[in-house]
Amino acid sequence: MDHVSLSLWSAPRAQAPVDAVVTLPGSKSITNRALILAALADGPSTITGALRSRDADLMIAALRDLGIGVEEAGDPTTLRVVPGPLRGGDVDCGLAGTVMRFLPPLAAMADGIVRFDGDEQARTRPLGTILEALRGLGAHIEGDALPFTVTGTGSLRGGTVTIDASGSSQFVSGLLLSAAAFEEGVTVHHDGKPVPSMPHIDMTVEMLRQAGISVTTPATGGDADTWRVTPGPVAAVDWAIEPDLSNATPFLAAAAVTGGTVSVPMWPSSTTQPGDAIRGILASMGADVTLADGVLTVRGPEKLRGIDIDLHDEGELTPTVAALAALAEGTSHLRGIAHLRGHETDRLAALADEINKLGGSVTETDDGLTIVPTELHGGQWLSYADHRMATAGAIIGLVVDGVEVDDVGTTAKTLPGFENMWADMLESSTATPKASF
Is 302 a residue of the active site? Predict the structure, then answer.
């Protein structure tokens, strides 16, 4: 795989079992959905606990360029969103799937031309599905991948569209989020292999309903693989953003691989975030996992067990699980994740290449990875400008000397300051009482 090295970060080796409390910033997925809904609302909204990372800041900048007021209200994580007439502008997607897939439907209702582009790596990410769907709903779009142009006329007809969303659940979510503002709403029918990351669609539907929007899903009496949003006003909501549970997973994995203990406060008792699945995954691999009074605590075992798991709905956890599996006893099979070949990078090939470079034994299958634990050694771990690849290298570096992670700064996509949080977690392992940061 082609990759240009930017910088190397020496992944710190844990000198003792990790013992820390880690407080995580808000969920990227919920933040960017809340921003879209607030932009379409019938009045101002406040978002508290918003994530301020590259992905979220790209969404904020794009909305401002399209005529939406987004201002900090006292601190960077509290945002006041004031809807306004949508106008033409320029959208930098970076590598953010939520920006490149959630904003085109909104841009189709702007009065003017909206130009989309992003990082070089983003130009290979699949977008044709949602862009072609928007054309079928009345939008004027030139291009099928970044860069592309949306020429808005101030409104969008909407209607019924059939798509193959097996490449990404974001194709469905992107259409649903703005659909209440379409003249006819939208009916999205999926025709193809099962949609991955269904919890993310559940998250979208739940947030739409919080904003007073009528949504029919397969689970609520609708047709199989069909979602229907009725046109109507979007209520202004004061959104409170949950911590990002997927960003918690590398820190919880640190407890698992070092035989230590990590606690994460404000863990929701009920959530649509796929990251919540890490609780069951770590328990299956031998860790002790408890959730009490809103605090999730993971205590690592003496030795992790391999796992055979379908991660179709939780694909974003694959890099963390692959790192755990490479350090476990017994072969692991990660299944149902062929769609990860279309993420920030081809995550399956990247994980296989990087673990194998350190002496591992990973083979790609049609829909996943088979990982046979071996004695790993140090070496360079490439991130491919992929935040979750970088954190996977950090996990392995906790127990393998000499792991150097390329471009660890890419973690700012969803978790700014990751390196400092990682260092603080390790420093706290010898602190008394337990450190919190």
Answer: no
